[in-house]
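To illustrate the input format used throughout this study, we show a single complete record. The first block contains the structure-token representation of the backbone; no residue identities are included at this stage. The design step must infer an amino acid for every position from geometry alone.
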């Protein structure tokens, strides 16, 4: 009986054992994850998803040389159908693909490789000194003993070129890298610690109120900055900032811009804190300011802070020159939102909502928050265009002396000016930067350009007229009690000066201040004119009732013509012209020539006159048209003026004898440029107020200078 039952018992036992082994194998296949062999001893994992997108020479991966050698021998055979996990510190690899491994797959991958391959078990093998196993869709290669851990790899994006996994103290940090044709993108994922920071759309908040003249842009959400900046954490500003702070940089110069909460005006709050008398000013200077590390000087030099309020935004900087440039751009309406290329370069390659953003030449970084994860994004441009090609050359200079400007004079060249301020201070700028300043004891009676070519001005102080150069040196000085602008010209190639030394007399002096001739009038002198004709020097002296015409080399007056309040006198290349408008008639009288009378509209205004190609032209305004006529009253051209109110006109001529006409619109605070034929000089939008000056430099370029708010701006037209 027992003998008959025993064979059946053995068969049942074998079937049971086979079933148990199969279940265990199935269980092992379905539960074991070879990636759990990696741990902190590996320090870092390199996970390659698309090997053809990686340049191993430029990436500088932190892995063992032997690991790199093995990886490079296997990766070409995978043909991007798997992810290759490589330890940074140990000879340990895991290859994970979509479908399951078979013995045929493993043999095809490793046979004829850099090491000898042989199977030594059902799913185990040897590859040189490496042991190997495969289960399901994973294959592992290793040396020595390996331990089992439990790591979360769910954040890896297999669409990336490769991923890096860092084993940090309390978490694993995953970075996915995407290699594109011209850029490299990196997305780093970390567990979110406690924070009050919330992501903000800084493009929407600030791009319309900040300018685009910067080389580096940074944005910090207020709570994020507080948690990462010890100075800001203790600062009162953290209570006033509404959303965050933008820092614009240009080299070492920086300006911080932020929006502030309603009722939290920074200047007023700072005045209260430091017991400073409130002056209701939009700009203030504070010797010390506890703001944030972003603007602290690395050399530990204590610099004053300049604070400006514009509606609901505040600007802070220790560099006044750069702050002035930023304010100029804002006043000109040149916001970042209008510069599409730069706008895209700042925001186009990074998340829209962030707690931090930094963009400089070729590098873009941002930090954002998603659920319980911090995501650090970076983009590096591979082929960065040179900064000179990327950035347009700035076509203006702005000058802000920190007090109201009463008047200005432009010199030859770009950014060369002399300012007269409300406190009787002379301030000289060269190439747009302040060069020197001097405080005058009294308000000058004369402040005018004397010699454009020599960069000299006439300065009347007390009983003396000084001729000073661009360096502030006194070149000549003459006795004078008049406020009439002096004149300079030549006799036989030698320079002479025509100076109103008293209200009713003019002295003709040489460069040694010797009086060559004295001319007197019976009325106060208003203007002095001079011109050359057939190598002879002539002088015109305008009073309230007369125009005296004198040849300097003779003692007698050649002509004495009646003029009145409607008359305007213009000096041409070789003549003087008297123009007047009365009862719809325009009269033009050439001192050495004919007199013409032309019928014009009743609302006609005589604007100015200019010489070109040995002819004299006169500009008229009729309704919203500008009309040019010659000395005989013949119309040369007319152009429509797109202005509300013509408040100022100026004409300048360059070294080629070509004129540029500048017109200032007082209502729209805009200026327009025309050539001598009335054609628009260009279509650039330029702002200006009160006064307009145009000065040539070089062969064909011009500087256009005007007021912009409380300071000056000088545009360049090449």
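Output of the design step:
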């Amino acid at each position: 009986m027992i003998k008959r039952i025993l064979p059946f018992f053995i068969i049942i036992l074998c079937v049971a054992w086979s079933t148990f082994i199969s279940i265990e194998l199935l269980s092992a296949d379905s539960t074991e994850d070879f990636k759990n062999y990696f741990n902190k001893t590996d320090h870092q994992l390199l996970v390659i998803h698309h090997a053809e997108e990686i340049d191993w020479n430029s990436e500088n991966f932190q892995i063992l040389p032997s690991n790199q050698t093995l990886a490079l021998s296997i990766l070409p055979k995978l043909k991007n159908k798997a992810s290759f996990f490589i330890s940074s510190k140990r000879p340990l690899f895991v290859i994970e693909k979509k479908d399951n491994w078979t013995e045929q797959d493993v043999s095809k991958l490793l046979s004829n490789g850099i090491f000898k391959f042989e199977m030594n078990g059902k799913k185990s093998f040897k590859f040189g000194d490496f042991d190997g196993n495969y289960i399901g869709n994973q294959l592992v290669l290793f040396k020595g003993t390996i331990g089992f851990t439990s790591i979360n790899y769910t954040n890896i994006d297999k669409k990336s070129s490769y991923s890096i996994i860092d084993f940090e103290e309390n978490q694993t940090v995953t970075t996915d890298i995407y290699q594109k044709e011209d850029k490299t993108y990196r997305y780093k994922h970390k567990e979110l610690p406690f924070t009050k920071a919330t992501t903000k759309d800084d493009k929407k908040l600030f791009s319309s109120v900040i300018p685009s003249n910067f080389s580096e842009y940074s944005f910090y959400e207020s709570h994020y900055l507080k948690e990462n900046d010890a100075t800001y954490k203790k600062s009162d500003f953290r209570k006033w900032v509404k959303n965050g702070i933008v820092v614009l940089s240009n080299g070492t110069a920086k300006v911080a811009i932020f929006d502030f909460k309603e009722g939290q005006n920074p200047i007023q709050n700072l005045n209260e804190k430091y017991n400073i008398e409130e002056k209701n000013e939009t700009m203030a200077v504070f010797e010390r300011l506890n703001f944030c590390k972003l603007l602290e000087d690395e050399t530990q030099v204590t610099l004053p802070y300049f604070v400006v309020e514009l509606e609901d935004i505040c600007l802070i900087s220790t560099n006044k020159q750069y702050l002035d440039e930023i304010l100029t751009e804002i006043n000109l309406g040149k916001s970042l939102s209008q510069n599409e290329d730069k706008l895209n370069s700042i925001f186009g390659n990074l998340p829209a909502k962030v707690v931090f953003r930094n963009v400089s030449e070729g590098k873009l970084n941002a930090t954002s928050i998603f659920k319980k994860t911090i995501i650090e994004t970076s983009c590096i441009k591979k082929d960065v265009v040179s900064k000179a090609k990327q950035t347009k050359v700035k076509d203006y200079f702005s000058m802000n002396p920190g007090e109201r400007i009463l008047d200005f004079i432009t010199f030859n060249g770009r950014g060369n000016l002399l300012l007269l301020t409300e406190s009787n201070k002379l301030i000289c700028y060269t190439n747009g930067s302040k060069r020197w300043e001097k405080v005058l004891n009294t308000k000058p009676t004369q402040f005018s350009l004397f010699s454009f070519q020599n960069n000299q001005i006439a300065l009347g102080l007390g009983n003396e007229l000084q001729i000073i150069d661009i360096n502030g040196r006194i070149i000549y000085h003459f006795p004078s009690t008049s406020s009439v602008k002096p004149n300079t010209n030549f006799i036989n190639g030698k320079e002479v000066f025509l100076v109103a030394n008293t209200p009713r007399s003019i002295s003709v002096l040489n460069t040694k201040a010797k009086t060559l001739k004295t001319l007197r009038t019976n009325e106060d002198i208003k203007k002095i004119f001079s011109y050359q004709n057939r190598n002879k020097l002539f002088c015109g002296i305008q009073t309230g009732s007369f125009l005296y015409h004198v040849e300097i080399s003779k003692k007698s007056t050649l002509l004495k013509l009646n003029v009145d309040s409607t008359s305007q006198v213009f000096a041409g290349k070789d003549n003087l012209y008297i123009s007047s408008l009365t009862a719809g008639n325009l009269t033009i009288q050439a001192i050495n020539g004919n007199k013409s009378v032309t019928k014009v509209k009743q609302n006609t205004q005589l604007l100015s006159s200019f010489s070109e190609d040995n002819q004299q032209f006169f500009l008229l305004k009729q309704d919203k048209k500008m009309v040019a006529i010659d000395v005989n009253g013949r119309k040369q051209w007319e152009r429509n003026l797109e202005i509300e109110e013509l408040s100022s006109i100026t004409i300048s001529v360059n070294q080629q004898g070509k004129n540029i006409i500048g017109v200032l619109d007082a209502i729209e605070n805009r200026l327009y440029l025309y050539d001598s034929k009335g054609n628009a000089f260009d279509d650039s939008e330029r702002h200006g107020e009160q006064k307009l000056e145009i000065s040539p430099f070089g062969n064909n370029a011009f500087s256009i200078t005007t007021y912009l708010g409380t300071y000056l701006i000088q545009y360049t037209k090449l």
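Structural context for interpreting the output: The chain has twelve helices and 51 strands. The chain has a mean pLDDT of 86.
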